[in-house]
Amino acid sequence: MTQPGHRGPMLDGNSMAGDLREIFAVDVTAARYMCAGCTHTDAVATLMVWHQSPGLVARCPNCDDVVIRVVRAPDRVYLDLRGSVRLEVPLEGS
Amino acid sequence: MGIISRGFGGRRRESVPGLPPGQYLTHDFPVLSAGPTPRVPLDRWRFTVTTETGDRTSWNWTEFQALPAEDVTVDIHCVTKWSKLGSTWRGVSLDTLLAGVESAADYTMVHSFGGYTTNVPMEDLLDGKAWVAYKFDGEDLEPEHGGPARLLIPHLYFWKSAKWVNGIQLMPEDEPGFWEAAGYHMYGDPWREQRYQGD
Amino acid sequence: MARTAVSGRLIWRAATIAEARWESPTARTLVLDVPDWPGHLPGQHVDVRLTAEDGYSAQRSYSIASAWPEPGGKVELTVQRLDDGEVSPYLTDTVQAGDQIELRGPVGGWFVWREKSTAPVVLLGGGSGVVPLMAMVRARAIAGSKQPFRLIYSVRTPEDVLYADELRRRVRDDAGLDVHYVYTRKTPDNWPSAPKRIDVAAVNTYGWPPDFTPDCFVCGPTTFVETAADILVALGHDPRRIRTERFGGTS
Ligand SMILES: Cc1cc2nc3c(=O)[nH]c(=O)nc-3n(C[C@H](O)[C@H](O)[C@H](O)COP(=O)(O)OP(=O)(O)OC[C@H]3O[C@@H](n4cnc5c(N)ncnc54)[C@H](O)[C@@H]3O)c2cc1C
Ligand SMILES: [Zn+2]
Description:
The complex is a heterotrimer of chains A (94), B (199) and C (251). Chain A is 5% helix and 40% strand. Chain A has 94 residues and is mainly beta. The termini of chain A are far apart. The longest helix of chain C has 14 residues, at 130-143. Chain C is globular and about 55 Å long.
């Protein structure tokens, strides 16, 4: 329905490292996601991230679908992972 | 709160009386986006109301432009804490768009080009409280701000005023949209500071 | 044991500015004292949080410029001023030695160079995107690593070059390091070409050929990163060996 849009001032998954590391004991940007929309898989660091919005929105570079959403409230973090069928997390030193 | 950074002012902002709690005044119009900006050619534009029984009423751009429009001046409040006073818009009232629609639904899901969704109770769309707006400040609404047309529902936080709007689905039960499913409040009243779930 | 398990989550901590020095007329390196710094890998960054008197706060990411270990235990950031920016002018022009800022890190485990890697390395940096690449260059020297590095550094004018003296010295003393500059607005006198953006010819001539299966690191403004990564792919580099980090904005 729409013409290919322009992507605007986006960042990538590297920029989510701090927010994710506040929740998880390991670095999630080095983990691999599998996109629920198109089964594309790559490092979380390679997701396209929109940050000028009420939360962080990370989309699959292959199909534009939302893979991860992070919303920060003053005393909580909401992490929505429904766009990722799985995360494969490398364990350092094992 | 963290340590104060001596001499740090941050982006120019004013706390003025009369704003909803926790809001600052801004004079520009920040662009917020959660994805690529859809470019919707007017000949492909369509706005569709779908009832809980699946009945559809829809307008193409020409039909939509022929509907009676209203000029409104409203204050808008973004959940990222900026408020903009006295913004002027032109659009079609939801009272007009929903007038001929048979429905007993109490809730709606607003849909956009690009896949964005947000939920709004039916009563918040009616009685002169909401518009599908296509002009801002006398000019055609730019794609960055939701053009060709966006929902305008100024009494709720601005994430409810869906950019690039293309339809409304009427629903018997409330369901969360894009941000509501990710932790934001189901209703989003700025005067009661309903930012997050549980606020 | 129980305490570390409970507090294992990454927290904000206060860092003290030990020293600040200008790298160019518009970029400054902040040398930070961070108590209990755990060390870091080259390519990692920190998040910096500033808080105003009225509680308003702003947060940004900055790459770590220095390598680890550092004899004094210090951590360095280099910040490029954006004139209309909210945070960078504060860090380049306002903050002084003795002041404190809050930071969280080190973070990021993907855009990092590891000394055990045996591949040659191509570094493509645009503007302040050279900062994490400089950490890699410095880490390579500390590790005494033999893998050759080639840096292609895209910058507006000769005056904007960060770490100019240090890069000159390192190239002179180390046969395993090459640096090529691409000037986008103004070249030095007698430069063989007019100002231009990074292109296939530059990456082809001054990078490593794909046959050498180099590890490629690309960093800078979002538009620079996309152009440079596309060039690498077009030249036949394996996309799995290309690591990118976008700083936002346009080049
Ligand atoms: C992982 C990561 C590491 C980073 N490391 C560094 C670093 O080592 N050194 C450094 O100086 N910066 C770095 N940045 C960029 C930094 O986080 C800020 O974005 C930058 O300092 C601008 O912040 P500001 O508040 O001054 O500008 P803002 O107020 O956020 O923006 C002002 C204007 O500049 C534009 N803009 C934003 N970012 C950029 C950009 N990078 N280039 C051009 N225009 C831009 C905006 O669109 C806006 O119009 C890094 C970013 C990321 C995500
Ligand atoms: Zn996908």
